[in-house]
Write a structure and sequence with these properties.
The protein is of the alpha+beta class and 551 residues long. The chain has a domain of 150 residues: Cytochrome Bc1 Complex, Chain D, domain 2 (Orthogonal Bundle). Helices cover 37% and strands 11% of the residues. Helix 6 crosses helix 7, helix 10 crosses helix 11 and helix 13 packs across helix 19. The radius of gyration is 23 Å and the shape is globular.
Amino acid sequence: MDRTRIKLGALAVALLLSACGDSGERSAVGGKVPDGGLVEPDQGWSETVREEMHHLSFGSRILPYDWFLHLERADGGGLLRDDATLQALGFISARAGVLNPDALPVGFSRSRDDAGESWVGLTCAACHTGSLAYRGRQLIVEGGAALIDYTGFERAIIGSLDATLANAGRFERFAGRILPATAGEAERSDLHSRLRERLDYLRWRQQLNHSDTAYGHGRLDAFGQIFNSVAVELLGIEGNARPADAPVSFPFLWNTPQLDLVQWNGSAPNAVPGPLIQNVTTALAVYGSADLKGHSGRAGYPGTVELNNLGTLQNRLDHLRPPLWPEAVLGPLDPQKLARGERLYRDNCLACHALVDRQRPEQKLRVSLVPLVEVGTDSTMADNFIEARAATGVLAGRRLMIYDGDAFGAEAPTIELVMHTAVGVALRHPLEAVRASVEGYHAAYKAGIDPRPVYYKARPLSGIWATAPYLHNGSVPTLHDLLRPHAERPASFHVGNRELDPVKVGYESGPGPGYSLFDTRLPGNGNQGHSYGTRLDEADRAALIEYLKSL
């Protein structure tokens, strides 16, 4: 990891020597017209930017686009793409627009491959757009933590494909929607084969990333899935597979461009070209691809990642502001509690969680890396990251940063294989990579990483009220519960209800149709640790929560 950080600067130089480009115009900000009739706190994005962030493709390809529009649900109760079906999986409805002609939910994208076929995929907003409700009113939170059921969505697609292939009548209905009226038996046979091929791939991928601890709503083992994507799928080495069994909550994105380190374990330096490389890995993890076996890497690796769009997405993220507590919806803040809570914050929280000056959006921010032995939270995610190693296969002998760095031996830390792949994808299109880096540029402190101790990152808490559940793995439902001793936190609760409790600050966590049960006794789900502020009495706890609402 340390050598990876050092060589990122070399990548920036290589890109700049390979090509040049301008950064393009930045869109105006300030609009707040919401999708689907939701109330939106003003977070600095215009309506145009919001549609762009919600639907611009970065290279994710799950299914051919027309298949997704016309597949029936496995149970025959309508189409897979119906709003009711996707809402039950946690997606947020959106209206039609230039980038979203078929009114798919927030986070769905459309892209075209080299053969001209359109594909449906997911983009950043699928995992990083929050929505909450209170007494019949709903709010959308840009850059917030989504509540999608990622594995449930995969199962729904697999079930639809399987049912279509298993039932002749259903297949004929599907073929009638997809194929031209003049299509004959050969075209139907080809479509049947393509459906089978895609089903087999999606089923294999889901089995590859199996986790005995269910993700449920609002979580994903992103590192586990990208590690398997590169080390197993792209390298073609089945023995590199590891369980993707450390699901974490989707982190909120505001203030991210200003941070020196990102990811829950603080493993990714954020100075240029760090954001571009991180975004490439994200695209690869969410059904993107790259060809490692058919190319030496000296000219980069071809793939589906859309670098220009990644630069645009990063650029728009720079304008995103934390959501302010919406007093008109959730009630006014108590001035006396705020004053008391501010003092408590300085005594209990400020040492790790810096305060952000909203009047200085360009400011550079440092996070605190807190050793696991101190914070005491569940270690599964950080342990998996540190311990993951894989056979290098065709990458053996290639340099870590393509043109620079140590050569790979027969085995390497999996994160280094991921970094090598992302760098190679960027170098394949140097002009676009430079443009993306420049367009998404934001000054950030350079940061070093010690690759041995296990850390979790403590970042500024602006907008924390809109990001439940809490801790990196989503194991604590409310701020009130987080400020209680471990033994008093809920051992289990349900996730999926968007109704907010404005006193405890978190979603209502009782059972409901389709909700996920979160059991803190399962591996990776521990709710222990982070004992800061847990000895406060109830009055002080309420005051501190009031102050946290104001950040």
